[in-house]
UniProtKB/TrEMBL annotation:
The keyword Isomerase does not apply. Component of the dolichol-phosphate mannose (DPM) synthase complex. This is Dolichol-phosphate mannosyltransferase subunit 3. Keywords: Endoplasmic reticulum, Glycosyltransferase, Membrane, Transferase, Transmembrane, Transmembrane helix. The chain crosses the membrane at residues 46-63, 75-97. Its main location: endoplasmic reticulum. Coiled coil: none annotated. It is found in: Endoplasmic reticulum membrane. It comes from Klebsormidium nitens (Green alga). It is a multi-pass membrane protein. Pathway: Protein modification; protein glycosylation. InterPro entries: DPM3. GO terms for molecular function: glycosyltransferase activity. Stabilizer subunit of the dolichol-phosphate mannose (DPM) synthase complex; tethers catalytic subunit to the ER.
Length: 132
């Protein structure tokens, strides 16, 4: 029995290959999806959100376990609620901005009006009254 080989690197792997394994594993987990497809981009976004969320949660738990005064502990305990409020305000402002500066598409509006006229004529032909 070779008792001293527990911490050794396999003789078939070079040192560079052994150090490359965590990078390859991370690349497989996060970056393996094809980012040109919509599903690949979504999965990459999910992993990014999970990574940032985990890091922030770990920092929050570490701050809760630190030796702090009651006032500081109260502020740290309220941080998730404040984060939700800030996220809600940001979301509302983004939606409001997008509504204010919604692009006008005259070609699409004409196509939609044509479809409405065709549908109205079809319904009128089949005895269904459509009022404007």
């Amino acid at each position: 029995m070779n008792g001293g080989s527990a911490g050794r690197i396999s003789p078939h792997l070079k040192q560079e290959q052994f150090l490359f394994v965590p990078y390859v594993t991370w690349k497989v987990l996060v970056r393996s999806s094809d980012c040109t497809s919509p599903q690949g981009a979504r999965m990459r976004r999910v992993w990014t959100w999970l990574g940032w969320g985990s890091a922030i949660a770990a920092l929050w738990v570490a701050a809760l376990q630190a030796d702090l005064s009651e006032a500081q502990r109260g502020v740290i305990q309220a941080l998730p609620i404040w984060a939700l409020v800030v996220f809600g305000c940001y979301s509302l402002s983004v939606v409001g901005y997008e509504i204010m500066f919604f692009p006008a598409c005259p070609d699409e509006a004409e196509k939609l009006q044509k479809d409405i006229r065709v549908a109205t004529a079809y319904l009128n032909k089949h005895g269904i009254s459509v009022s404007k």
